[in-house]
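Fill-in record for Chromosomal replication initiator protein DnaA.
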Amino acid sequence: MMTNDTWGEARETLQTTIGKNNYQTWIEPLTFVSCENGVAEFGVQTSFQGDWVSRNFGDEILRQFEKLGASVDRLKFSVQANRRPPVAQSSPARENFVTKPARRPAISDEPVLGAPLDKRFTFDRFVVGKPNELAHAASRRVAEGGPVSFNPLFLYGGVGLGKTHLMHAIAWELQTRSPELKVVYLSAEQFMYRFIQALRDKQMMDFKSLFRSVDVLMVDDVQFIAGKDSTQDEFFHTFNALIDQQKQIIISADRAPGEIDGLEERIRSRLQWGLVVDLHPTDYELRLGILQQKVEQYRAQYQELKITDGVLEFLAHRISNNVRVLEGALTRLFALASLVGREITLEMAQESLADILRQSDRKVTMDEIMRKTCDYYNVRMSDLLSPKRSRNIARPRQMAMWLAKLLTQRSYPEIGKRFGNRDHTTVIHAVRKIDELKAQDSQVAEDAELLRRMLEA
Ligand SMILES: Nc1ncnc2c1ncn2[C@@H]1O[C@H](COP(=O)(O)OP(=O)(O)OP(=O)(O)O)[C@@H](O)[C@H]1O
């Protein structure tokens, strides 16, 4: 039997499982209405709130009910007319939002073999800017179908820059254009899981023929299989069989094929056969474009939303991490605005996003730069600080100095001091040297880019 007390208990645990911030923003404002015939009903203030809780925390709430022995199969969120804040007037008087049954995934339209596709990850919701234009163009091209021009398409880039979004967009587009195509999207982890399951159940023939029968295979986060020998082996065979049949393969990873440690050489070189494209970290214009698009989507779907001029620009300036963090910040503001029914001001943004802004402000320290550079080049810290001038020590030292100049506010003399009391002219020389080398030597350019990303992550 599900009662208000059960809800109280579930709420206690939810504070830990979804985090305090999420709890306070989303769960605390819910009011328990009733539970009848396995449907637990909650009152919400706006349709946006109901939709968000349903989509993001619905499964977790159901899991907590199950643990407490309450027989709840579904959740229902109803907008309570008398609790509606002023800005929400344009929404209909009462709306329901029902989560799917607990064991179903939170997103729908599952293709036969792969993982579900997210409905929001389409091309028209992907904002294109300088940092991602190549990846977008290549993905569009693949999504047009027709003769396979580059195989595989390998998309790589840092966390939350849109790799998964692009892959899903390709899948949606292909399925719309050619519904007869068997398009399969899954993460490398899911590939491994299915492989192990097939081995265990002695179903390897089925596994092989299933994967070899697809028309388009997309494997996300392929770095996951690095170091997992038998999975790599099977992946390699699947990959070859599909390429031989001229079937399109799309792969994503958090770094370039050449930089994934623990990946067999033959796989590494196969992955480089086709087109390898990089999603660069977002720039200010792209971030602003993404924020503007999200605001428009919100307005179209939910209600009027008032934002003071300059708030989006402020967010685009201050939050330079991945797009996921940017979206999270904006969603929190939407929630707040819909709950309190006020315009989103700069002050509100600064206050309610203090934690995210602090995180984004995170300064890279000299210590981190030195440690990461030592790890990367496999040299000892004591060598980095020593007078040694052999190239295998001098180059990492110059790189670390270059990174220190780029990522910290330290002056040349200060940097020199930290690197074993060196003169500021040595630092100036190191910075120039790396700038020169970056232009001439692609390996140095890659090292610099990778280290910068690792430090800014
Ligand atoms: N250019 C963009 N336009 C609109 N939304 C974007 C864009 N880039 C990323 N996003 C959004 O940012 C979020 C994170 O993107 P996504 O999951 O595709 O990142 P990812 O590169 O696959 O990250 P990870 O390495 O963590 O898997 C998603 O909600 C996605 O829709």
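KEY FINDING: The radius of gyration is 26 Å.
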